[in-house]
Specification:
This protein is an alpha/beta fold. Helix content is 40%, strand content 18%. The protein contains 17 helices and 18 strands. Strands 12, 13, 14, 15, 16, 17 and 18 form a 7-stranded mixed beta sheet that branches. A hairpin with a 5-residue loop joins strand 1 and strand 2 (23-32). The longest helix is centred in the middle third of the chain and has 52 residues, at 225-276. It is flat and about 125 Å long.
Amino acid sequence: MSSSQIPGVVCSQMSFCWPDGRPVLDRVDAAFGTGRTGLVGRNGSGKSTLLRLIAGILSPTGGTIAVNGTVASLPQHLPLETTRTVSDLLGSTAARAALQAITAGDATEADFAVLGDDWDIEERALAVLARLGLPADLDRTVETLSGGETVLTAVAGLLVRPAAITVLDEPTNNLDRAARELLHNAVTTWPGVLIVVSHDRELLEHVDQTAELRDGAIRTYGGTFAAYQDVLATEQLAAERMVRAAESSLARERRQQIEAQTKLERRARYGRTAAANKRVDKAEGHKRKRQAQVSAGKQRNLQADRVDSARMLVDSAVAEVRNDARITINLPRTAVPNGRIVLDVDGVIVRGPERIALRGPNGSGKTTLLRRILLQRPDVPVAYLPQRLDLLDPALSVVDNVRAVAGSATPNEVRAELARFLLRGERAEQRAATLSGGERFRATLACLLLADPSPQLLLLDEPTNNLDLDSVAQLVAALRGYRGALIVASHDEDFLAEVGVTRSWTTSARSHGGGGEFVLGQRGEPVLMAQQHPDRTGQDGERNQHDPGDDGVHAEQLQRRSKQDEGQRPPNQRAG
């Protein structure tokens, strides 16, 4: 294959600005060839914009982008009509209709033209559906698909007729554990050029190289996300050593500057004393004075230049160190004694500062269970972080949003606490409606954790969905300062490990006459809502000391109680 036929993407000094002049990409040089590339970066750094430039949806405002080959894309938000079928999503409907007409003997020349070489279109489509764990039903409508099934079906459409270049934008968002694993497997063997934007660290372990988009520029690292992190950590250690060495050099030059200045002043005093005592004649004294002044000026300039050079080295070294601020908070009022019962729902007991992972496929009732726990009025103050970050009043500033839940805290006290959530100065005074995604997340987290009374039970529903990797790290840092009990529904195993879950509840769904019954655990009894087991990430798989065993929450009793309580308080109101 000649070089002109090799698929790939080459960006040369490419820039992009929005119509209002806001820059996104600045003179980017990058190349993407055959293989799998994971594209990482903060939310708002321009990752989705770059994918749209590659797909031809946008055009660069400077420089060039050369795309050699056909491009297929999976956007982050799929614009789907509910009446469309799986066959429509796979792009096989026209070919299937033509094949049916040919098989029935009613074909026209147009049917043969539409079918082309796709005589095995149905077999290929069904094979790809099976590979991704989807039902073998091409005529199923979109409205009957779950969110995860919709994404996997769209991915299947990209594999039925693979393009030379494929771009995927956050494909694992909202996928459950099983669906993620199927997508991971598909990415491992993806043909051609694949560029995938993701914050799913497990998915990023299936790529050949990692490209980071930061400050409008792209840098490519060979290997998976873990390899990228290792290289970055090594570089940062070296950069920090350079900063320390440069600062030491600057301190030495400043010390020498002071010593030199002291010597010059001593000589000047000696000269003045000698002239006053008439140890030298007047003409010789003036000559020596001028010589001393010239010498002193040169010495001062030399020392000043050396100090300036040392200072520039410090600035250069500091610029190489990433200043990715982290949330650092301490929340002593959230602490729960080890033996205290935090939650008791029909025998399911949570004691002390346990950290429980709520696992299970999409649609199995994880969100419903979290909401019903709220309605059970736990024995401690509780806070709930829903999947949608819609807890803030958009018309109020960040400070006023926190003051609304922080009791008697003064504005200055609130500002001081918000600074620990990286919301300082003008950012703390911004209206919530104007916040970026990362700022909105941190402000929401501050409202939950700084509330009065302090929450001693925290319920999190898929908290890492739609968060970039920096925001996930900030959430982990915030939860390190939280000292109460935690129940978190998540498919992100890396996140669950980092927050230190001590045991797990697992959900599965069973439908009964259109209503929802929920069973958790290995036995799957329809009367149980929760069966618990120690988290597999725990040491030696031993049962947590607070695990009450396989007792569960009875669905029918819980439904009756929740119906009695429903409507009596807002879903995010904390218990007394």
